[in-house]
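User: Design a sequence. Structure:
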């Protein structure tokens, strides 16, 4: 019988992706540009959080947004209406962004005029957690209507992120969402994660979120000359 050769496709794909992600990270670091990878389920409020963030911070920093979507460009149109450059990555079926897609997006960004890039990843709590995009920080959104048990179902996503935004907290009064239980579960996996409680409808918690993001952007910025 001929010998059977086993090829682990996932390991090969992730290794190739990691190499390109490191090249992206090195390039952005040399330019003093901060990049955020924002992940969440569909409908959790990724675009709403990005829009509210831009409205509060675009006078301080120059942003560009890379929008990942399977088909539409609705979200990039919303960003453009805020006077911020947007690049739409239409995957045609892929359930996550990878480093090669982000590299294609960055190639269409005027990087010399940008302080920060926000990536809106495709709505999914599974695949995006595996793929390094060359970002400085990973953040995820969990909305109150999704329930507080998602950390039990998708532990990797909560483990790899530097920040968790619990969004739509204006729904708390009409839900059985348990904030304390969620936070305990998350911190058992990821003790150092920063947690923000926000509502893009009322504005609650957005200043705290922007304050964290501001510090991260400043950390990536080149030192002042003179």
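Assistant: Done.
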């Amino acid at each position: 019988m001929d010998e059977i050769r086993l090829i682990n496709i996932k390991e090969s794909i992730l290794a190739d992706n990691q190499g390109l992600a490191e090249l992206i990270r090195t390039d952005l670091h040399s330019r003093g540009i901060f990049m955020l990878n924002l992940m969440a389920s569909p409908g959790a409020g990724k675009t709403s959080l990005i829009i509210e963030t831009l409205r509060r911070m675009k006078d301080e920093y120059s942003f560009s947004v890379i929008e990942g979507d399977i088909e539409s460009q609705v979200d990039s149109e919303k960003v453009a209406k805020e006077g911020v450059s947007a690049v739409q990555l239409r995957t045609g079926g892929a359930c996550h962004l990878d480093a090669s897609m982000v590299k294609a997006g960055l190639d269409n960004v005027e990087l010399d005029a940008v302080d920060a890039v926000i990536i809106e990843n495709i709505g999914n709590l599974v695949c995006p957690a595996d793929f390094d995009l060359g970002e400085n920080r990973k953040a995820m959104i969990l909305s109150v209507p999704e329930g507080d048990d998602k950390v039990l179902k998708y532990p990797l996503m909560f483990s790899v992120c530097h920040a968790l935004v619990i969004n739509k907290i204006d729904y708390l009064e009409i839900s059985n969402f348990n904030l304390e239980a969620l936070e305990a579960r998350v911190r058992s996996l990821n003790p150092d994660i920063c947690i923000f409680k926000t509502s893009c409808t009322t504005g609650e918690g957005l200043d705290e979120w922007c304050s964290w993001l501001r510090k991260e952007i400043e950390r990536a910025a080149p030192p002042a000359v003179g």
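The mean pLDDT is 91. The CA atoms of residues 111 and 129 lie 26 Å apart.
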